[in-house]
Every structure is written in structure tokens, then in C-alpha cells.
Amino acid sequence: MVYYWFIVTIVMPKRVAVEIERSLRERLASGEWASTGRLPTERRLAAHYGVARNTLRKAIEGLVREGKIFRHVGRGIFVNREPSPIEQIFHVLRDVSPADLLAVRQIVEPQAAALAASHASRAQIEAIAEAHRMGCESGEIALFEQWDAEFHQRIFAATRNELLFAIHRLLSLIRQQNAWIDLKRESFGEEQRRNYCRSHARILEALRRRDDVAAEREMRLHLEETRQALFGRH
User: Fold this and answer.
1) How far apart are CA 120 and CA 132, in angstroms?
2) For the whole model, what pTM was predicted?
3) What's the pLDDT tens digit per position in 177-193?
């Protein structure tokens, strides 16, 4: 009889804990605590399931190990929310290398220049021309960098394609990261600035002529020039 009592006292809480863990997992999956991101206290959960807090803790530990929830000492138990697809994309963007960034720019920007040649308004082309002029007249490299970014941004705006413009904004966020800035600072000088100005002038001329083929070609050449300046010819 004593042996039976010992088995019951050891095994039954384990079974109960498994059942509670299953119940909590189902409630988490249903989004029951999604709005607050926080579970009730151990005391309230134990009372809800009619068990001792030690039994409840066994159930909770299983979910903690799975990463479904986490404890914050002194504050409570919280839902470990899965990152949304958009958040996952931003996590990837944060670690993009300058080489990968430039490779994507070489795919996207020539096509954007071609679209801008076909779709830009006269005012938009003049805005691109202004960015080109202000950059070439800048006495400081840092100021030129700002107008260089503005030149490319205005080309994307001139495509009149909101999705394409949004893609450019993502690429611009990567360009503002330290890895890209440091690499550009190391390789960029006055001679490179003059080369950029000449490339921008050829792109602008193609836009003014509404020559989408030339605009695409000149943007491709400009980005290849950038690649060589940053990474060499190989």
C-alpha cells in the first residue's frame, strides 16, 4: 500500500503537468495572450488548473525549453513571439555585406534608370539635375555623399513605381550601415568624386533625351565603376 501511494504521488503530478503543458501550448497557439504578450501569474494559472505551483512549473518549463515562453524575474511569464516575415527580412538586411548590396543595386538600378527615362515628368528630371549639380559643387566628400544618395533616390522616385521606390529605400538603409560607410570612406577620394560626376552627367543626359536604353547602360557602367573603386577589378 505504501509502494502504491509512492507511485501515485510521483507519477500523477507528471501526468498532470503534461496535460497542463498541452493545454497551455494550445492556448498559446490560439493567440489567447497575443494582445498582452503576457501569461497570467503562476498563482492564477495554478488555481485555474487546480494544481500545486510545483506541478504548474513543470508544465511551464517544457514551454520555456521550446522557446514558446520566457520568464522575466520579478515581472512574470511572457510570450516569446515569433518574428513576423517583415521582421525576419529586416534581420537579414541588417547583416547584408557591401558586396551583396552592390550586386543587388547592379540588378535593380539600371532598370530603374530605364523606367525613369520613360516615366519621369519634366519636374522630376530637373530635380535629378539639381541633385547632380549640388553634388558636383560640394566641396566636402560627406556632402557629396548626401547628394549622390539623393541623385539615385530621385531617379527611383521618377519611375513612378511605388514598390520599386520602397525597394530603393531598403537598399538606402543598408547603405547607411557602418560596413558600407567605412568601405566607401577608405576607397573614395577627390578623383573618384569627379568620376562619379561624369557618370551622373551621362545618366542625366540619357534621362533628358528620354533614352531608356542609354539610361540603363550608363547606370550599369556607373555601378560597375563603383564596384571597381570599392572592391578592385576582380
Assistant:
1) 16
2) 0.63
3) 656 666 666 666 778 88
